[in-house]
Amino acid sequence: MDHTTLIDVIADEANALATAARATGPDAPVPATPEWSMAKLVKHTGTTHRWVLAIAASHEFANPGDLDLGLPDDPASYPDWFEAGAATLTSALSDIDPLADMWSWGVDQHARFWSRRMAHETAVHRWDAQSALGTQDALRADVAIDGIDERLENLTPSMKFNPAGAEALCGTGETVHFHATDAEGEWLLRFEPNGVVVSREHAKGDVAVRGPASDLLLYLNGRRELEGLEVFGDPGVLDAHAAMRSF
């Protein structure tokens, strides 16, 4: 997906997240992230947007602790605060060349990393927020396919946020195949002694997981389990590498 389309995804998903937050109120529990209330979820996502805005301003790393969040005293006002931050972020990203050099924690060291990362960050947290309503809209198939690509491309560097997951990326050559059933997308993960190797291909794995792209992305982000997905082969391979899904 291109930079402009991803910025549109940020805007749409941010609006849907804020709508869910207003409908439930700040104290509502969020089943998708049981340790968080709605207020904490909105604060987290809005803080992340403002952190990326600071990175976009300098093209260098920004210390999250130095941010002036402007967070309202009343958690009931968090959705308005969140939407304002999302609008400022999308405007700033729209004015930046996607190929401009920019610090990131991932593989891609260009501004386009952040439009992509924030599109998928916001989409997944929108899904989280809607879990408090009891009904969750699936992620758009094209968004989810790109989200899987992005997740797997950055799987190794993402483990700096989850050191326990680094070990889960190592193995003895066992393989996992993911296959989207509602859009074009197949991936093979091979767990080698020095880490995971990911390829975009149709290939037989020791275990295969098939399902809608949205469900596959949510599985890879630790938001759902295998129930409802088609699993062929040895699910023990997935169990052995489950820590890679913590992100």
Walk me through what this model shows.
- A hairpin with a 2-residue loop joins strand 2 and strand 3 (about 195-200).
- A 5-stranded mixed sheet has the order 3-2-1-4-5.
- It has 2 domains: about 5-135, Four Helix Bundle (Hemerythrin (Met), subunit A), CATH 1.20.120.450; about 165-245, SCP2 sterol-binding domain (Nonspecific Lipid-transfer Protein, Chain A).
- The protein has 9 helices and 5 strands.
- It has helices at about 5-25, 40-60, 80-95, 110-130, 140-155, 155-160, 165-170, 215-220, 235-240, and strands at about 175-180, 185-190, 195-200, 205-210, 230-235.
- The protein is globular and about 50 Å long.
- It has about 250 residues and is of the alpha+beta class.
- The model has no long low-confidence stretch (mean pLDDT about 95).
- Helix 2 (about 40-60) packs antiparallel against helix 4 and helix 4 (about 110-130) crosses helix 5 (about 140-155).
- Helices cover about 45% and strands about 10% of the residues.
Summarize the structure.
The protein has 247 residues and is of the alpha+beta class. The chain is built from 9 helices and 5 strands, in the order H-H-H-H-H-H-H-E-E-E-E-H-E-H.
